[in-house]
Amino acid sequence: MSDRKSLFSRAARAGRTALLLCAAIGVPLFFVNSTWIAARLERLLRLEVEPSFIGGRVLAEFPDPMGDDDGPGGYAYPLGQGRERGELDLVDYIVRRPVSRPIWGDSGAFWQLDAYFAKAVATGLPGGGFRAPVLHVYVQVQAAKPGTAGSTETAFGEGELLRFDPAHPWDYVISADGWSAQAEIRSADGAYRAPVLAIWDIGQRRLSLRIGLEKAPPLLTSVMKGGSTWHYDAARDGHFAALREGANLHDGGGAKDELAPRVFDLLAPPGTCQASELASEDAPAGVFALVEPVEAGGPAPKAYDPELRRRLEAETAKEGLASETDREYRRAALPAPSPADASRIGELFDLGLEDRCLTAIVADLSAKPADPTALAYRGAITAKRADRAAGIAEKVRLVAEAYRDLDAAAGSAAQAIAEDRLAVFICRGSVSSAVPNDVFGRAAQGASDLDEAARIEAGLGDAASADGHLADAAIAYEKAGLRVEAGARWATLAGRKGLPAALRLLLLERGFPIEDRGEDSRRDSR
Predict the structure, then answer these.
(1) For the segment 362-397, what is each residue's pLDDT rounded down to a tens digit?
(2) On the chain, which terminus has fewer CB atoms closer than 10 Å, C or N?
(3) Strand pairing class (229-237; 172-177)
(4) How far is CA 318 from CA 9, 130, 330, 352, in A?
């Protein structure tokens, strides 16, 4: 009964990706005025959290693509200890402003760095800790003068098999291991070593490194003055775990030669590629891979070019027109209503033929009462009709009724074929992203559903639609207030080539570097 391509991905093939699916459901409009009281109360009652309680104000944030915990590509986790993909996947790194006078106790000045991972599995040891990752953070302080301080070699001999940008030699390295209660900082010259408070938050999948500044050397304490610092972040499995051609119980696999970097995830600067940096070693010459740092506290990023935004908006409108033209063509080519409509429910829904779609759904459910795709489309139509209902109570009732179908569909979709599961997750994910989160609390669930839709679509070979679902998931995470999850998905998309204008516009608005195909688009318009 599945009609996967008729749902939203046909629109992608017509010139735009399956973007902003919640707009197709049409639910949020009637809530614009209904939640103004909640929004007003939230503004009145919100109290600013004292920055020192959370580690200081954010100075710089670096979302990292998710799913890139395979080094230069192709690395495999060790086979032992039940490790799971995502445990070495760094998805966000935050540099906070140093705190000079914490308001609690006798704690002295400190500087905090936060690292987030895609998955966290507790060690079970006192003091917390995550099972898999070893994180090495190399930092160059602004006051360091090139040629007079710092190092371009790793702090652990040949541990990572990396070399660092000669323009930014590191001055300090912070090393954290989930199996140890404390992290450590050491200077490049070895003259300074000190413990670092490691705060492992399993729920947030976050490691916070709180570096004490009270008794630190002047070079380190100079971060209190502000200015730029440069950071290299590398996530590994074990301090000195080997990497081999094939994974075994203790060592990872995928090494192409003996100098393959022992790094599963690396924080690469905007506009660069982790895979290319980690594949830059020259084994015959004995040269390690060269990596570059990210800069925190530097000049503010340049505002995007208004002309680029104008071009993207024009391209987006052209893509939308092509999509609507395709829909009109398909409406005209649609056969007359018949019992065969039960096999084209998704297409009828996509074409906006709600009454005919519902008739087909009723016929399908009379034969298969628990058909997940029919339930999902009926739930989506019910939620969409809430937009036209009179009165808030009736609107809320209809959305609740929609979820009875949508949740039942999701509950019975586990054994369905991939195309039917895709339809279920798109329908429920779109509704959950569209309805106001402060009323229904479904945005995070919607994001998870849309993530699953992206995974299914990728498995079915439709990369364009998968990217669209991933963008929808990022938007839903933003609505749920899950900034890190949203950022990781935008960072993933920012590394893609050939994205449609609508997606590139969303990335541009969020400050990500994007592919500018301006010359091509101007040539096409002539």
Answers:
(1) 999 999 999 999 999 999 999 988 878 888 889 889
(2) C
(3) unpaired
(4) 17, 48, 19, 21
Other CB atoms within 10 A of residue 258 CB: 13
Length of the chain measured in residues: 526
Tell me if 511 sits within 8 A of 305, measured CB to CB.
Answer: no
CATH architecture for the domain at 4-29+302-525: Alpha Horseshoe (1.25)
DSSP state of 87: T
* Residues of the chain above pLDDT 90, percent: 54
Give yes or no for a contact between 326 and 14, defined as CB atoms under 8 angstroms apart.
Answer: yes
Tokens at 217, concatenated: 């050397």
For residues 459 and 418, is the Cβ–Cβ distance under 8 A?
Answer: yes
The class (CATH top level) of 60-296 is mainly beta
- What does the DSSP 8-state code read for residue 298? -
- Name the DSSP class of 475: H
Residue range(s) in the chain whose domain bears CATH number 2.60.40.1190: 60-296
In the predicted structure, residue 463 carries a pLDDT above the cut 80: yes
Give the Cβ contact number of residue 80 at 10 Å: 11
Question: Half-sphere exposure of residue 265, counting CA atoms within 13 Å on the CB side?
Answer: 28
d(CA 66, CA 118): 7
DSSP secondary structure, 168-232, as one string = S-BSEEEEEETTSSEEEEEETTSS-EEEEEEEEETTTTEEEEEEE-TTS-HHHHGGGG---EEEE
Q: pLDDT tens digit string along 509-522?
A: 998 888 766 544 44
Residues 6+ apart with CB under 8 A from 91: 63, 64, 65, 66, 116, 117, 118, 484, 485, 487, 488, 491
Helix (H/G/I), strand (E/B), else coil: 312: helix
Question: Which residue ranges does the chain devote to CATH 1.25.40?
Answer: 4-29+302-525
User: Cα(417)–Cα(500) distance, rounded to whole angstroms?
Assistant: 29
Q: What is the pLDDT of residues 29-81, one digit of tens each?
A: 444 344 444 444 444 444 455 666 778 889 999 999 999 999 999 999 988 77
Residues with Cβ within 8 Å of residue 479, at least 6 apart in sequence: 433, 437, 443
